[in-house]
Design a protein that fits this description.
This protein has helices at residues 17-31, 107-111, 114-123, 149-159, 175-185, and strands at residues 38-39, 49-51, 70-73, 79-84, 88-94, 99-105, 133-136, 146-147, 164-167, 170-173, 193-195, 220-225. With 228 residues, it is of the alpha/beta class. Belongs to the purine nucleoside phosphorylase YfiH/LACC1 family.
């Protein structure tokens, strides 16, 4: 789709700010929620989870809240989102306790169990893992995610051999699979997980990909709206 050809939602990508602002207005209209109620964070590939600060019902995008890689809210009408262009986005819904969360899980965050930390944050507030509803993706898939042998071995040791595919001298990492295994380990039910299988890197017509485009590309916003 080109670096910024369609609905880029990344503010630090080199795109024209006015165009990105316009895209956020389109996003808010499609979501049916005030843009000022969207909470985001400065993503740092760590394992910190924070509670979203409620926003007003304005039409202005708020600054990123703090450094973290997951955020949650229990406030009606608020929405939380994470930015991706290859990393795995994870959206969590606790239908009983009425919490929602958004998680950014790159390889560092996946190795640091950021998805587990987000689930634990909801469990600490009464959520039951087996009741959670989860959406995973879009992300780069193992077909395009070549990593070092050292990283592949670390992931195979931590998550199991199924997350690594060896092809000749190359090692390919199935990052979404590692995230799903993390969630299953915590008690999230497979039928409650909707995992997108498309690959960001393969599908240039629909997805941005940092790796495919050598860093010059847009960003998706993966969001969940608190509306019970």
């Amino acid at each position: 789709m080109g670096p910024f050809a369609a609905l880029n939602l990344g503010l630090a990508t080199g795109d024209v700010r006015e165009r990105v602002d316009e895209n956020y207005q389109r996003l808010a209209q499609a979501a049916g929620a005030p843009l000022g109620a969207l909470a985001t964070v400065k993503q740092v590939h760590g394992d910190r989870v924070v509670q979203a600060i409620p926003g007003e019902g304005s039409a202005t995008l708020r600054p990123q809240q703090t450094e973290a890689d997951a955020l949650w809210t229990d406030q009606p009408g608020q929405w939380v989102g994470v930015s991706t262009a290859d990393c795995v986005p994870v959206l969590l819904v606790d239908p009983e306790g009425q919490h929602v969360a958004a998680v950014h899980s790159g390889w560092r965050g996946t190795e640091a169990d950021i998805s587990a930390r987000a689930v634990e944050a909801l469990v600490a507030r009464g959520a039951k893992p087996e009741k959670l509803l989860v959406a995973v993706g879009p992300a780069i898939q193992q077909c395009c995610y070549v990593v070092s042998e050292e990283l592949a071995r670390r992931f195979a040791t931590r998550f199991g051999a199924e997350v690594v595919v060896a092809r000749g001298d190359e090692f390919r990492l199935d990052l979404p699979r590692a995230v799903v295994l993390t969630l299953r380990r915590l008690g999230v039910k497979v039928p409650h997980m909707d995992v997108l299988q498309e690959c960001n890197s393969c599908d240039a017509a629909h997805f941005f990909s940092h790796r495919r485009d050598a860093g010059r590309t847009g960003r998706h916003i993966n969001f969940v709206l608190h509306r019970f």
